[in-house]
Each structure stands twice: as structure tokens, then as C-alpha cells.
Write a structure and sequence with these properties.
By secondary structure, this protein is an alpha/beta fold. About 50% of the residues lie in helices and about 15% in strands. The protein has ten helices and seven strands. Strands 5-4-6-7 form a four-stranded parallel beta sheet, sandwiched between helices. The protein has a three-stranded parallel beta sheet with strand order 2-1-3, sandwiched between helices. Helix 1 links the parallel strand 1 and strand 2. Its EC number is 5.1.1.13. It is an enzyme of class 5 (isomerase). Pfam families: Asp_Glu_race.
């Protein structure tokens, strides 16, 4: 079994899901006492959030590149960045290491295409919904990407930063997300990409009428498959 390197802490709430899912998936596939071989580095999210808000993506990229090099030095055979938003600096992170880097948007797009879906609604932070780095990566796979309107983007972003990254899950926020997803479906979305690793703490497949693509789970599934040589 190859060693999975995880760059986490953005936030640790969702990184805990990465670790849990990786171990559950290995146990399902290998059985017995098997668990995932993981080396994890977890950053202080306050440092990353400060750079996000300042728009200093160059410094943020170098911060995460340092962590990637640490994982490689610790024996990681492949690396995953446990956050959607910080894939804005994915190229910098990938260039810092000589082992494979599994891009979250690529694993998501593969699952969307396999499901026969071509037009998706995207939920995430404002950075993910409004900037080109993530939408264009999905579009490179032949997907059409819809995002919520201004009010919807406000709600989705606020709930992530004010609640989910702090481990707060509120029924009224779930209802607000359900309404935003319904709006995307009305506009023609054939599926919904949960493009923030914390969103899976709040909503899932039961909350909309179209297929849901949980990026955290899809990313971990790809990492485990690579680790097991599948």
C-alpha cells in the first residue's frame, strides 16, 4: 500500500473527514485489520485565511508548497490538498514535489462525466464560485458550470466561514442551501458539485433532486484507489 500524503487544516473539520474516509475505504477494500497508510500535515487555518482575505495567493502557495515538501520527505507516495479553495495554488504545490499530486477538481470532473452529467451547479467559497481557477478546470473536462446568483453566493460563503469551519451545523443553514441548490436546478443544473470540503457536513444527496458530487469523498476515493494500485 502506497503512503497518502494529506495537506490539511483548511479546516480541520473537513480534514478529519479525509482521514476517516480514507481508513474506512481501505477497510472496505482490504478487510481485516487494514487501515490507510497516511502522513498528514495540518496547517494553522488562521494563517491561510489571512492570506486569502489579503489576496496574497503567492504567499499562500509557498506556505502549502513547504508542507508538500515535508510530506514528500516523510515518505508520501502521492499528495492530496484537502481543500477546494486552495487549489487556486495547486500548480505551485504540485511543482514543489516529485510524487503525484491528485487534483481535486480532476477527480470530481471524472465522477461527473462518468455519471453522464454535463451541466453542474457549483457551491463553494466565493473564491471557488467566482474566480476562474476551479470553474475553468471543470470546463477543461467538457463541463458547463453554473454558480448561484449574488445573494446565493453570499449565503453559501457566509455559512462556510461563519459556521461550518467552526463545526457549527444549523438546520436553517441547511434549508438555505437547499433553496440555493433548487435555484440552480431550475436554471438547468443536472448535478450539484459540493465544491467546498466542509459543505458535506451540511447537505448531501437527499437535499436535492439531481445527483450530488461530494468532492471530499471523491477525492479520497481517488487517493485510496491510487494507494492500492487500483
Amino acid at each position: 500500500m502506497r503512503m497518502i500524503g494529506m495537506i490539511g487544516g483548511m479546516s480541520w473539520e473537513s480534514t478529519a473527514e479525509y482521514y476517516r474516509l480514507a481508513n474506512e475505504l481501505v477497510r472496505e477494500r482490504r478487510g481485516g485489520f487494514h487501515s490507510a497508510r497516511v502522513v498528514l500535515t495540518s496547517v494553522d487555518f488562521a494563517d491561510v485565511e489571512r492570506l486569502q482575505m489579503a489576496g496574497d495567493w503567492e504567499a499562500a502557495g509557498e506556505l502549502l508548497a513547504v508542507e508538500a515538501r515535508r510530506l514528500s520527505a516523510a515518505g508520501a507516495d502521492l499528495v492530496v490538498l484537502c481543500t477546494n479553495t486552495m487549489h487556486k495554488v495547486a500548480d505551485v504545490v504540485a511543482a514543489a514535489i516529485d510524487v503525484p499530486f491528485l487534483h481535486l477538481a480532476d477527480t470530481t470532473a471524472d465522477a461527473v462525466r462518468e455519471a453522464g452529467v454535463r451541466r453542474v451547479g457549483l457551491l463553494g467559497t466565493r473564491f471557488t464560485m467566482e474566480q476562474a481557477f476551479y470553474r475553468d478546470r471543470l470546463a477543461d473536462h467538457g463541463l458547463e458550470v453554473l454558480v448561484p446568483d449574488e445573494a446565493g453566493r453570499d449565503v453559501v460563503h457566509r455559512v462556510i466561514y461563519d459556521e461550518l469551519v467552526h463545526g457549527v451545523v444549523r438546520p436553517e443553514s441547511r434549508a438555505a442551501y437547499v433553496a440555493v441548490m433548487a435555484g440552480l436546478v431550475e436554471r438547468g443544473a443536472e448535478g450539484i458539485v459540493l465544491g467546498c470540503t466542509e459543505i458535506e457536513l451540511l447537505v448531501g444527496a437527499a437535499d436535492t433532486t439531481v445527483p450530488v458530487f461530494p468532492t471530499t469523498r471523491l477525492h479520497v476515493e481517488a487517493a485510496v484507489a491510487a494507494a492500492l494500485g487500483e
